[in-house]
Amino acid sequence: MEHTTSQEQGKVISGLKHGLDAAEELLREAAQSTGDRATELRERAMASLKSTREALLVAQETALQKGKQAVRVTDDYVHDNPWQAVGIAAGVGLVLGLLIARR
Fold it and tell me: pLDDT tens digit string along 34-80?
């Protein structure tokens, strides 16, 4: 499952970069053009930016939903296994304390 999430993140990032690159290229062309051609290029650039913004909002919502799901799973685990959770937290705290003390 982790592998799939990494692939999904890579696809989202790649799509966002592509959308921004396309908009940037269109705006560059529009700066060198005049009249109707410049207007058309600016409109296409704005459409590309709008599409990229929408994709970013979808990615943000997906990340929020996955974060909420992780919080629910963790909360359920802590409620079902309180002593194990305390032991894990103590172990993590000990390791972090040792790492900080070494510096």
Answer: 888 888 888 888 888 888 888 888 888 988 999 999 999 999 998 99
Three-state SS sequence of the chain: CHHHHHHHHHHHHHHHHHHHHHHHHHHHHHHHCCHHHHHHHHHHHHHHHHHHHHHHHHHHHHHHHHHHHHHHHHHHHHHHCHHHHHHHHHHHHHHHHHHHHHC
Q: Cα separation of 51 and 21, whole Å?
A: 13
What is the spatial distance between Cα 27 and Cα 23, in angstroms, rounded to a whole number? 6
